[in-house]
Amino acid sequence: MPWFEALGFVVFGFAVGTYGSMIGAGGGFLIVPLLLFLGNSGRVAAGTSLAVVLLNSASSTVSYLRQHRVDVQSALLFSLAGIPGALLGAYTDQHLPHRVFTILFGIILVLVAARAFFTRDRATTSETVDEAADREAPVPFEAAKPGRPARDFVDAMGVRHRYDFSLWGAIAVSAFNGFLASMFGIGGGVVQVPAMVYLFGFPAHIAVATSQLVIAITAAFGTATHAYYGDILWLPALLLGVGAIAGAQLGAHLAARMQPGPLMRWFSLAVLFAALYLIYTSINKH
């Protein structure tokens, strides 16, 4: 591989890592189109992309853990639900054509992007610790209900986050998302983040940070399965991964300073890009 091509992979990986970490996605929605453009098959593009997504999400997770914005308990539950789907997604790539499925998935992503872009910022119970102390009669957060785990914690920036969510609904989404993420090599944040925010009431910053740990765990299993089938181009994956690891640190730093509204609108652009690409390539596939 020429040096300028290798450098191009590293630079592209840095851009993908920064953007993917900032919006809570793995970045595969950008890597897969590049690999297909270079003439690789769909399953090789998915497998190689997922390996890079693993490195990117693992790097950004470290930063988000330092910010105390990762809901570790929820991430582990969602990951356990997504692992079987990640294994099945890589297996499906080997045997089944998924042109119609890809088109349907692209349509779903268009709807997700539209909702993320046009929905007003939801009210959350996030507040600074000082603000909470200044209130004369703070309202206590309700204890966890059956099937609705409650979370109440303060991040490294002094913001308190309080929310609860439907456990079984979140597990169902995570299981399906693990399958989609592994099958298409996109990591899964394009589905996981809006579901956590709009369906289950997670604060946007917590959803972005938590999704990175979910992606890292499920991508590890999906990558291992794709490696077993010989779907990974190791040199491009390594070069892209080097850039993505560095970019993920920058993306996590930028995300901590963005308001939830603009953050989700940035996210909607990424989702729309992925959707249009999937639809276009499926319709024009010979």
Computed over alpha carbons, the radius of gyration is 19 Å
Fraction in helix: over 70%
H/E series: HHHHHEHEEHHHHH
Count, helices? 11
Average pLDDT metric: 81
Uncertain segments of ≥5 residues (pLDDT<50)?
Answer: 129-140
- The span between the termini is 29 Å
Number of domains: 1
Q: Give the overall silhouette.
A: globular
Number of E-type strands: 3
Strand residues, percent: under 5%
Major β-sheet annotation = 3 strands, antiparallel
The structure class reads mainly alpha
Strand numbers in spatial order across the main sheet:
1-3-2
Describe the protein.
The chain has 286 residues and is mostly helical. The protein has one domain. It has helices at residues 3-23, 28-37, 42-66, 72-95, 99-118, 129-134, 167-184, 189-199, 204-228, 234-255, 260-283; strands spanning 127-128, 150-154, 159-164. It has a three-stranded antiparallel beta sheet with strand order 1-3-2. Strand 2 and strand 3 form a beta hairpin. Helix 3 (42-66) crosses helix 7 and helix 5 (99-118) packs antiparallel against helix 11 (260-283). It is globular, with a radius of gyration of 19 Å.
